[in-house]
Amino acid sequence: MKRLKFMKDRYGFDMLFLAITALCLLIALLTRTVLWRIPHLSTSGILGVTGLTMLINVSRVFSKDITRREAENIRFTLFINKLIGKGGKKSSYITNNKGYTPLSQLKSARPKAVYCECGCKLDVPQGSGIKIVVCPVCGKRSSVKNR
Asked: How far is residue 75's CA from residue 71's CA, in Å, rounded to a whole number?
């Protein structure tokens, strides 16, 4: 149970994490097989930079700043969709001329978090109207109005 509580308010894994991990593993594999033959190239430096990149990438998984991590993942997904041509429908996220999605828009798109008196974050079902939510920790019933 303690492991579940540790990851409770953390961001977790997403597509950006998987892409950076795959890229780092590919660079490490190429460094060990092909690039070590180039005389003026430091393979230990390349492996050090990829290791540092992986540490930063893993720190994203354990981050508590969920809105920023979501914004990074949405920007990455929009970039990949433009790159491979899967634009299809226009996204509901407005990107400005600099190519990133403003955090203020992402924060307003997410529903507000609802907390119980005991401090536990409650899961509110989607839809409009008044919902009755039961706290999983203390068992108290709360009515929540969705918009």
From this structure: 6
